[in-house]
Amino acid sequence: MKIINGKRKELEIKAAQLIAKKINSLLKIQERVVLAIPGGRSIIGVLNILKNENIKWDKVHIFMIDDTIGNDPGKNFKQAYDIFLEYLTKQKLLLSNNMHPYIYFNLPMNKGLEAYKNELKLISDCYDIILLSSGEDGHVGSLFPNSSVKDPSEFFVNVKESPKLPSDRISASRRLLQKSKCGLLLFFGEEKREAYENFMNNKLIIADCPAKLINSIEDSYVFTDVKNL
What we know:
The chain has 6 helices and 10 strands; from the N terminus they run βαβαββαβαβββαβαβ. By secondary structure, it is an alpha/beta fold. The chain is 30% helix and 19% strand. α6 (193-200) links the parallel β9 (182-187) and β10 (219-224). It is globular, with a radius of gyration of 16 Å. The strands form 2 sheets. The protein has a 7-stranded parallel sheet, sandwiched between helices. Strands 4-8-7 form a 3-stranded antiparallel sheet.
């Protein structure tokens, strides 16, 4: 795991360039790449830069790390579409079939999660590259400390009564995220100081600080503008 410090705008450029580099490297040895992204404000700058990188987007499949299923369902995908995916599709760079929002809202939850798992397995058994952003409590995706992060599911989990609204969500499981080939984790903003300190605290485990799961990925990178730790 490599930690990269700096100013936020510079880190956003570095993160986007790194994702592009990793995608292009993987495409030299495999037919397609699965990139998984979450919601949240921290990733907006990275995605805005990433959409202009030189990438064979027709070989890339975009999945969601997590999304809302209660009030305002699909909120995270809507954000990604508005700032990132719509541009790529309008430029005819990304195929519409390569976007994979969670759309199974009308199915019972267990069947919806199974359907999304099967959609992923048609392409790959895991995410190739994940972009994560830590919350103030150290959560990533919708894996929250000492709750949903403990779910042993292999692929996706239903998160009920999430500490963060909307309360009902789906999320990639800890096990699925840890299988990724490459992971990037963002700690942006002074409000993430405590989360970053917990991340660096060797006495805490993943259950206490879910962001620590990035350490399980051999090829992993942490970008932070938190100063004077």
